Amino acid sequence: MSSVARLVLAAAATTALAVGTVGCTSTPEAGACGTFKACGGDIVGTWQITDTCLTGEFLPDHCTAARVDSTGVKVEGTATFAAGPLTYSTTSTETGSVRITFPASCLESDAPTVDCKQVEKGKLDEITLAAAAGPFAAVSCVTAPTDACACTFTLKPATEMETGTYAVSDGNLVLMATGAHLPPANTQYCVSKSSLRIGLPSELSASPGLPGSATARTTIAYTKK
Q: What's the whole-model pTM score?
């Protein structure tokens, strides 16, 4: 999958981790991010990221009642689309954190029942085991109201750059990364004046440190430079 597609998934770009309940990394004008209708348009030019919105559901293993807040993820970068030949280049940097709240029912379902500090130790062990392969640098868990356990996973700052070719048709944008042994990334897009939105639905697997799965649609909003 191209870096633009990973960026759209975002949580940005942190390869299939930063997804969960609806969230935006800023407070954009109405309609700037989130759900949109693919309308196509002239995508040629250089575009700067202004916001990312994540809509979907994350299901941690053994705790489908857990809630994910990805609004702490910040994505910055640009995407450039050439007029001909149809090539693109992207740069993106992801920082911030993902907050996951495990309800008391999940803690009590284990045998024996675990407390919040034990959850923190377990997640920290998973992050340490994943080492360089994982997207997280640290995790901290605190007891929340109603005996829930709220864990904040801090992302490792990560910058990705990519080039490739693209094709557009009827609001669909297909990204084909140079040298990538992956299928093309099929996305939808809409250009309105100086604004661009790209969206990608996907079923994802979680990263080391947070086993589970997700179904998400992520939208990234750009402004033309």
A: 0.73
